[in-house]
Amino acid sequence: MSRDLWVGVDIGGTKTAVVMARKPPEALARTEFATLPANGPQPAIEQMLAVTHRMLGEMGAGPDAIRAIGISCGGPLNPHTGVIQAPPNLPTWVDVPIVEILRKEFGCPVALENDANAGALAEHRYGAGQGTRNMVFLTMGTGLGAGIIVEKKLYAGSSGLAGEVGHVRLTRTGPVGHNKAGSVEGWASGGGLAQIAATMLKAARRQGRASSLLDLPADHTITAKDVGVAAENGDAVARSMIRACGRKLGLALAILVDVLNPDRIVIGGLAMRLGDLLLDPARRSLRKEALAPALAVCTVVPATLGESIGDVAALCIAMDAGEPTDA
Fold first, then answer.
1. Which DSSP letter does residue 74 get?
2. Do 282 and 212 share a structural domain?
3. What's this model's pTM, rounded to 2 decimal places?
4. How far apart are CA 162 and CA 154, in angstroms?
5. How far is residue 119's CA from residue 116's CA, in Å, rounded to a whole number?
6. DSSP letters for 210-274
7. Phi/psi of residue 66, nearest 5 degrees
8. Residues of the domain holding 254
9. Same structural domain for residues 155 and 210?
């Protein structure tokens, strides 16, 4: 049988998905299961292997049909050695040689990449970054990371750490992200928005301003989702929180525009869900801060792959892993 199946594995702290395709990004089969990091890596890995074998069997194929396997996972990880190094959402996955495990099991090329870089490849090839030469993709979820495309190729840096814009400090004090107060991640991420919300709610309560967020139970920890729902329902205080987050996001975008001069910045996560409510204040800050000639060639848009981005990202890594053996 010819090797014509790409397999993508998207490992997250909540769920892991295994997807198979012959012509990405269209999937032929997909299975999702709970990662349950509290149980350690072994149960999830065993399930990953079993699910892949089962899916192959259902398609009337065996391991010899797999062209390559790509793995997308949050960092830190080492793409060169193929080792997952205890990411914050997978704290029990300490130095897991995931590439070696899958290579031995299925006898095909296997590659590992962090989710921001993998997401950049996915949006560049199949999403909002199509047609660009130089692009930045921002993952704007609980944290904030970036994947960088330079001359249509992923730029990883000398040690694979290119794109850690979330670690850049914007202000001396402020919300904490990347273990740094006032960082880009602290100000412009889901976790950062939750911290902004907590501070602004205290001020709203003192000022007697009405907000549906103040009606939540006292023991409830405000999340970015809470803020987004309230904003969609017209809550003025929630909308001001999102604008505050957007303004700081714009400062980070200006740094990227001035340093990298990209054609496009594609933003996932919160930007997809909140749209112009977040992006309009970000674009205003960007216009004030960035060099005009660089800004003139750059657009800022939300990602378009939506919830499928993890699947497509892992398949992109598989395609790159299989490229050296293409016949």
1. P
2. yes
3. 0.89
4. 10
5. 5
6. --GGGGS-TTPPP-HHHHHHHHHTT-HHHHHHHHHHHHHHHHHHHHHHHHH--SEEEE-THHHHH
7. -80, 125
8. 128-304
9. yes
